[in-house]
Amino acid sequence: MKKYLMGIVGVLALTATGPAGAADMPLKAPALAAPVFNWNRCYFGGHVGYGWGRNTNDFGQAVASGPTESFEAFPAEFGPFDHNTRGGVIGGQVGCNRQWGGNWLVGIEGEFFGTGIKGGFTAPEDFADPGTFSRFESRNLWDLDLALRAGVLFNANQDLLYVKAGGVLSRFRYTEWHDDFPSTHACPNFGTCSVTLDQTVPGWLVGIGWEHVIMIPNWTFKAEWDFMGYPSHSVAYPSAGATIQNFGVKDTKSIIKVGVNFYFP
Predict the structure, then answer these.
(1) Mind spelling out the 3-state secondary structure of 58-123?
(2) Phi/psi of residue 4, each to 5°?
(3) pLDDT in tens, 44-101
(4) Where do the domains of the chain lie, and which CATH numbers do they carry?
(5) pLDDT tens per residue, range 2-26
(6) Is residue 185 within 8 Å of residue 208, measured between CB atoms?
(7) How far apart are CA 26 and CA 139, in angstroms?
(8) Rg of the Cα trace of the chain?
(9) Pairing with 203, which of 5, 142, 225, 239 sits 20 to 30 Å away (CA)?
């Protein structure tokens, strides 16, 4: 009888503790989907970078057309005055994207940035003239561009690889040094003096870039390379006695830049 009673107590104990133990076990929460960055928005941001390029010009032909130059036997001062350019850039960008077909993206982006891209070439003056040298300098002051972007999203929408193409409007400053400005040997003390001319020049742009999500839901990092070209345009040569009063100038440049974008909620 005693064994029988102990068996009943054991069964009752197991029955009482079994459901309670099961109830006390923690339930596993269902897995949450990883957040996905929304590219289908507008954004703004900033960037810094470095650019290098090439300036080709006919400044030497204008110098050679001066009234005291035509019979000189030492044309070193006539150039050529073509030169390389380089310098830093800093600016900002705004744009909007449209995602379609799952992983494809198209958009439009505008940028404005100041630049320190500049260069120049100096040629020594020959013995026949009172000046000491001739020089042509170019400097890119700022750029304003508008371009279309098209690219593909990958790595679970965390990365964008894109190409871009559009137009650019750039401000250039050209400085000419010679001894005949504004008229023959008119510089102080029969030396060399300069004139500075600013021009706004339209051009074209192509580029390739990569954009990566660094913080959901709003922040991305970008790295980009752009090439900009400009048609040949005329610059004044303000020497009253020269037969050439305008000469051709042409600029090209490449820019590598990095920056961040903030996407509006």
Answers:
(1) CHHHHHHCCCCCCCCCCHHHHCCCCEEEEEEEEEEEEEEEEEECCCEEEEEEEEEEEECCEEEEEE
(2) -65, -45
(3) 999 999 999 999 999 999 998 888 776 655 566 788 999 999 999 999 999 999 998 8
(4) 37-263 (2.40.160.20)
(5) 444 344 434 334 444 444 444 454 5
(6) no
(7) 70
(8) 34
(9) 239
